[in-house]
């Protein structure tokens, strides 16, 4: 079945496929199309959608609802993420399953409201104080908007932490023909619930890398949520051993599961010494550039990143094997390129990493990428 | 034989019998009054949640055996709103100080306006206790604090009047010394809508020593400021979490984002990918025409993309739409060098100098007559001839695009017509179909 839609529609469909039943957001270009759809559609499922008085309230409502058991999502753009910052920290500290869509636009500040960008990549990694891990996915097509939104909900439920979907103005607002029969539905998982009858300790984990069982506010167990440094009962503490345990738990529950958090697609070509690493809207130009180059007899491989954070180091390391030149096209000054360079540093011989970057509000053209493929080995 | 449920005699966490507050601090009294109110109502602890803000009062939830939510400074009301919206059955009690009141002022206004069914207790001790006695939004004029050493120059916020005029369902002002406070708190909790109690109290660590303050001075200050006390508002209007469910009950079960399949009913002779730019004016149907152009292509078995560019204002200035039609899936959606460029209005022309410059002899610019002289390009120029068809300004985009569909042999005009009928309101579609008829004569 062929349909004509934008990424906002696919993200909304993905959210409903994942069982999203709460959305709060504040209007901002270019994320508003998601807000409009969610508020229009949620009542049909018995869910709740509301426009907050600002971004802070919107995310606050999502966090409150999530701790009642709701599967909550919000959507904004870079300036809104700035306002989300403190509450993202709360969601990390309090272990809140949550999906946050960042529709990137050209910044800083008000920047270019209707202008495409990939300028928030490192911002999302370091979005809040404390330096704890972040999970961020990045769809490169309409079908991936649908798939990765489901995945974002699954990861949020699995790890009880906010999960970002990093996308951009073009992906959200450009209409495209899509084969929706090819949309992939994945098995939807729910957060592990505290067993009935047994004693419930809100932040208890057997091992530091475990995720605590969930009991909703209003359910069988009394529960305690806190954004302060706490012990396993959710009580404020400065006791060194308890603080150390909570800090390491919040770190390890993501870092110890990095293998589960790598989502990439490798389109490798035998004998290629050049690799293009790309993500999001830029991956589409890359795909076309690689097609053109291969048609001209050049050998080139392509790695598409679907999970920006944590960095997919296994996939990168493996894709970089035998590669001498890596091209990283991005709509920023090279924010992901520095991650690729970091991985490349550990390799011998160390591949050269080259950026193709635009910050003028235009998409990177396939030709601009293809020019960098000029020195590829030719059949 | 029925066994009567045991009466609950306290909601205090008995492992924490002693509060952590300074000797004489008003928080101690207010929390005991809150406990008494909860006992009076025999609340189901599992269906009750205390949401605390930051500051000394932020520690309070740990001293109760009900659900607890301890969030960020000033945002307690937002979490409480999310909790209530997600489960209207819950009793949601917010405990915040005058600090949280100030930083979260926007949330307080919205909670009152929305009439969300939560109860807010403001532990109002006229300054910041936890951070060292700085002034707050309720510090009286002249009040000495760590940040107003010479006396506060600002006027205090009348929180009760503020939420009252903005729709709160129950509003009370009193002090931690009021013996009837448990009854007032119980009334507030029982109010279906938004309720707030502004409870003045002594901060014995800072405001008392800095201002030689006392219980009498507290009561005197309230009088001097002409702030009324007691129950100040009792209003009845629909509570938000329930009103939302009633309002939308009729939508329950309706299909969510149902698929909108586009059938392939026509054939297109298009061999190569065609990149088309429509450059016109905002409010001139450029975007809707571009949608019809793309939809018609899909009816004809082609793949299509559509990108729109317009200023942040919507109904003035330029409107440029880019449509790509192809036999294959389209990955890169930009158009650096259009195959077809339609210059429909002067506003549109201002946006496409780069494209005009890039285009060559194999490509075509379609131009309205009045702009024909202003176009410099190597591309083939075709000027619309409006002499034989009345070109209404509103129909310009549809008429010219219809002419291009036929002239460039993109796909059957019937598909374009069908796209207009399918995608637009009946009266607008009728008007646009007339423009398609008129287009036959202009090229």
Structure description:
- The complex is a heterodimer of chains A (379) and B (443).
- With 379 residues, chain A is of the alpha/beta class.
- In chain A, helix 1 (7-17) runs parallel beside helix 6 (142-159), helix 3 runs parallel beside helix 4 (78-94) and helix 9 crosses helix 12.
- The two termini of chain A are 38 Å apart.
- Chain A has 12 helices and 16 strands.
- With 443 residues, chain B is α/β, with parallel strands linked by helices.
- Chain B folds into 2 domains: 14-247, Rossmann fold (3-Layer(aba) Sandwich); 274-439, Pyruvate-ferredoxin oxidoreductase, PFOR, domain III (Pyruvate-ferredoxin Oxidoreductase, domain 3, 3-Layer(aba) Sandwich).
- In chain B, 33% of the residues lie in helices and 17% in strands.
- In chain B, strands 2-1-3-4-6-5-7 form a 7-stranded mixed beta sheet, with helices on both faces. In chain B, strands 9-10-8-11-12-13 form a 6-stranded mixed beta sheet.
- In chain B, helix 10 crosses helix 14 (413-423).
- The N and C termini of chain B lie far apart (94 Å).
- The chains are: A alpha/beta (379), B alpha/beta (443).
- At the A-B interface, strand 1, helix 1, helix 2, helix 3 and helix 4 of A face strand 2, helix 2, helix 4, helix 9 and helix 10 of B.
């Amino acid at each position: 079945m062929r349909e004509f839609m934008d990424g906002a529609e696919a993200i909304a469909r993905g959210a409903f496929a994942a069982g999203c039943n709460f959305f709060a957001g504040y209007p901002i270009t270019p994320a508003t199309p998601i807000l409009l759809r969610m508020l229009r559609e949620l009542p049909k499922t018995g869910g709740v959608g509301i426009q907050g008085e600002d971004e802070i309230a919107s995310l606050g409502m999502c966090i409150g609802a999530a701790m009642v058991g709701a599967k909550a999502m919000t959507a904004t753009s870079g300036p809104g993420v700035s306002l989300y910052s403190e509450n993202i920290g709360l969601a990390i500290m309090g272990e809140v399953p949550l999906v946050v869509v960042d529709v990137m636009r050209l910044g800083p500040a008000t920047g270019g409201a209707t202008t495409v960008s990939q300028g928030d990549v490192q911002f999302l990694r370091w979005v809040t104080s404390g330096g704890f891990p972040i999970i961020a996915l990045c769809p490169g097509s309409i079908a991936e908007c649908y798939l990765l939104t489901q995945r974002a909900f699954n990861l949020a439920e699995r790890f009880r932490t906010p999960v970002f979907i990093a996308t951009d103005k073009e992906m959200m607002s450009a209409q495209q023909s899509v084969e929706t029969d090819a949309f992939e539905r994945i098995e939807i998982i729910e957060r592990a619930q505290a067993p009935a009858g047994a004693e419930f300790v809100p932040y208890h984990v057997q091992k530091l890398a475990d995720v605590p069982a969930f009991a909703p506010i209003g359910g069988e167990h009394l529960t305690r949520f806190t954004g302060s440094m706490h012990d396993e009962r959710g009580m404020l503490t400065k006791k060194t051993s308890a603080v150390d345990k909570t800090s390491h738990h919040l770190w390890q529950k993501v870092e110890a599961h990095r293998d589960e958090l790598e989502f990439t697609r490798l389109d490798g070509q035998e004998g290629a010494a050049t690799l293009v690493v790309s993500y999001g809207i830029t991956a589409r130009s890359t795909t076309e550039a690689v097609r053109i180059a291969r048609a001209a007899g050049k050998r080139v491989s392509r790695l598409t990143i679907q999970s920006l954070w944590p960095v997919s180091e296994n996939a990168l390391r493996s894709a970089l094997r035998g590669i001498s030149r890596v091209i990283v096209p991005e709509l920023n000054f090279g924010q992901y390129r520095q991650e690729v360079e970091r991985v490349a540093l550990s390799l011998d011989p160390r591949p050269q990493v080259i950026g193709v970057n635009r910050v003028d509000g235009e998409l990177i053209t396939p030709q601009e990428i293809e020019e960098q493929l000029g020195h590829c080995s030719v059949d | 034989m029925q066994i009567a449920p045991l009466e609950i005699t306290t909601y205090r966490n008995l492992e924490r019998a002693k509060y952590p507050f300074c000797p004489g601090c008003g928080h101690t009294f207010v929390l005991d009054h809150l406990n008494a109110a909860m006992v009076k109502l025999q609340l189901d602890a599992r269906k009750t949640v205390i949401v605390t803000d930051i500051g000394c009062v932020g520690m309070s939830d740990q001293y109760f055996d009900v659900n607890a939510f301890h969030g960020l400074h000033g945002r307690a009301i937002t979490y409480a709103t999310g909790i209530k919206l997600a489960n209207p059955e819950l009793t949601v009690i917010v405990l915040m100080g005058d600090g949280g009141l100030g930083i979260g002022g926007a949330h307080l206004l919205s909670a009152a306006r929305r009439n969300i069914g939560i109860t807010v207790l403001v532990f109002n001790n006229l300054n910041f206790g936890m951070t060292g006695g700085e002034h707050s939004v309720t510090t009286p004029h002249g009040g000495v604090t760590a940040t107003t050493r010479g006396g506060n120059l600002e006027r205090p916020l009348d929180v009760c009047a503020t939420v009252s005029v903005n729709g709160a369902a129950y509003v009370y002002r009193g002090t931690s010394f009021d013996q009837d406070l448990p009854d007032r708190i119980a009334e507030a909790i029982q109010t279906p809508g938004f309720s707030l109690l502004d409870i003045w109290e002594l901060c014995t660590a800072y405001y008392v020593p800095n201002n030689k303050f006392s219980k009498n001075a507290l009561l005197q200050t309230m009088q001097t400021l002409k702030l009324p006390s007691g129950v100040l508002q009792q209003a009845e209007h629909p509570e938000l979490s329930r009103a939302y469910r009633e309002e939308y009950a009729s939508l329950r079960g309706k299909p969510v984002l149902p698929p909108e399949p586009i059938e392939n009913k026509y054939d297109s002779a298009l061999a190569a990918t065609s990149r088309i730019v429509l450059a016109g004016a905002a409010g001139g149907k450029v975007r809707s025409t571009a949608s019809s152009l793309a939809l018609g292509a899909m009816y004809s078995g082609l793949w299509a993309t559509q990108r729109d560019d317009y200023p942040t204002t919507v109904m003035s200035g330029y409107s440029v739409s880019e449509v790509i039609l192809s036999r294959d899936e389209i990955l890169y959606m930009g158009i650096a060098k259009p195959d077809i460029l339609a210059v429909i209005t002067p506003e549109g022309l201002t946006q496409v100098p780069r494209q005009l410059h890039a285009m060559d002899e194999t490509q075509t610019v379609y131009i309205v007559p009045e702009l024909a002289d202003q176009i410099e390009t190597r591309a083939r120029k075709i000027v619309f001839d409006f002499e034989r068809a009345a070109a209404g300004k509103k129909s310009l985009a549809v008429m010219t695009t219809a002419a291009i569909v036929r002239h460039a042999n993109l796909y059957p005009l019937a598909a374009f017509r069908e796209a207009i009928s399918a995608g637009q309101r009946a009266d607008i579609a009728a008007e646009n179909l007339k423009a398609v008829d008129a287009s036959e004569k202009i090229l």
